[in-house]
């Protein structure tokens, strides 16, 4: 397997404050790696080191086969970066921005224009004409940011919270643009505060806390490591919660979790079809009134909170 990004023991301090301590990560070529973590975990510092904007204090890293310290120029020629804030000129139109960045990247006048036309078409911005960027929606701006990062068609993209502040429609537009890029064989390292975004886009997820990776795997692996499927019952009346707990215990033979606020009881199951069938029989026998019954897997939000919660509540998850 060939890796687009390799980091081993990366460290960075700001004064006496450690920002990144022993960060390790390998990202295979192709697909999306989601880098998650609470505020202050060190995600943006890692991205800045991997994109040569910040020199590590220790450890080593390579991107597209080039060392980020010794071969910084080669790294920069093989990457695209979309930061948390739009980097385009709001007075200019989309095509003018792309031509300008093409010229700044030494493509030449004719090639800059043809590349701008290619990218406008790819990112659904061909109909914007000379409309200034300040009149664009949030999703359109971020798609233009992605287009700018692709001026030189780099094999590796760094997306640092690319949908921060966007509404659901804008996020959806950016997701589609990222999927289209990855479909061409490129690799993306994505940091995000939206757990749903990582679940939708990432093939691989690394969860950071206190400057290092504390869990890694596919979204499915991380969810499974937290406990697998759970069967749930929502009762019509909160007074029936204790009765529902007994029904669920008999049907599953497992420890039941009760949530009075949502009138919900749940328990882990191994054979979900058999557990559902047994639960349905028990509910019919008792005549208990329920609003909903079903099976669900743990969410990525639950995995995240489980791993990055208060120190005394954290547990190891091996994926």
From TrEMBL:
Signal peptide feature range: none
The organism's lineage is: Bacteria, Bacillati, Actinomycetota, Actinomycetes, Streptosporangiales
The residue stretches assigned to a coiled coil in this entry are none
UniProt-recorded name of the protein: Daunorubicin resistance protein DrrA family ABC transporter ATP-binding protein
Q: Note the superkingdom of the native organism.
A: Bacteria
Q: Does the keyword Membrane apply?
A: yes
Matching Gene3D superfamilies, A to Z? P-loop containing nucleotide triphosphate hydrolases
Pfam families, per this entry? ABC_tran, DrrA1-3_C
Q: Which GO terms describe its cellular component?
A: plasma membrane
Span of domain ABC transporter: 5-235
UniProt keyword Nucleotide-binding, yes or no: yes
Q: Name one GO molecular function term.
A: ATP binding
GO biological process entries: daunorubicin transport; doxorubicin transport; response to antibiotic
Q: What is the topology of this protein in the membrane according to its UniProt annotation?
A: Peripheral membrane protein
Q: Which UniProt keywords apply?
A: Antibiotic resistance, ATP-binding, Cell membrane, Membrane, Nucleotide-binding, Translocase, Transport
């Amino acid at each position: 397997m060939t890796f687009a990004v390799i980091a081993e023991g990366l460290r960075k301090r700001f004064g006496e404050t450690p920002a990144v301590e022993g960060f390790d990560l390998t990202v295979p070529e192709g697909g999306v790696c989601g880098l998650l973590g609470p505020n202050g975990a060190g995600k943006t510092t890692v991205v800045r080191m991997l994109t040569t904007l910040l020199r590590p204090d220790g450890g080593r890293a390579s991107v597209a086969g080039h060392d980020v310290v010794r071969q910084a120029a080669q790294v920069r020629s093989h990457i695209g970066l979309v930061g948390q804030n739009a980097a385009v000129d709001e007075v200019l139109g989309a095509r003018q921005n792309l031509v300008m960045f093409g010229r700044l990247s030494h493509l030449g006048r004719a090639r800059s224009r043809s590349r701008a036309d290619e990218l406008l078409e790819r990112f659904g911005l061909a109909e914007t004409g000379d409309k200034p960027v300040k009149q664009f929606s949030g999703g359109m701006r971020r798609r233009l940011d992605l287009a700018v990062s692709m001026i030189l068609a780099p094999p590796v993209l760094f997306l640092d919270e690319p949908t921060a502040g966007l509404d659901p429609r804008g996020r959806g537009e950016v997701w589609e643009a990222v999927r289209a890029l990855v479909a061409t064989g490129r690799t993306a390292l994505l940091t995000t505060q939206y757990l749903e975004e990582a679940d939708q886009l990432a093939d691989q997820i690394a969860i950071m806390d206190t400057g290092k990776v504390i869990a890694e795997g596919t979204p499915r692996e991380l969810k499974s490591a937290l406990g697998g499927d759970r069967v749930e019952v929502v009762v019509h009346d909160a007074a029936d919660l204790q009765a529902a707990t007994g029904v669920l215990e008999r049907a599953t033979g497992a420890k039941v979790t009760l949530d009075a606020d949502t009138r919900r009881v749940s328990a882990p199951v191994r054979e979900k079809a058999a557990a559902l069938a047994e639960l349905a029989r028990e509910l019919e026998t008792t005549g208990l009134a329920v609003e909903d019954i079903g099976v669900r897997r743990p969410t990525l939000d639950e995995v995240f909170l489980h791993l990055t919660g208060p120190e005394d509540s954290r547990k190891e998850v091996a994926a």
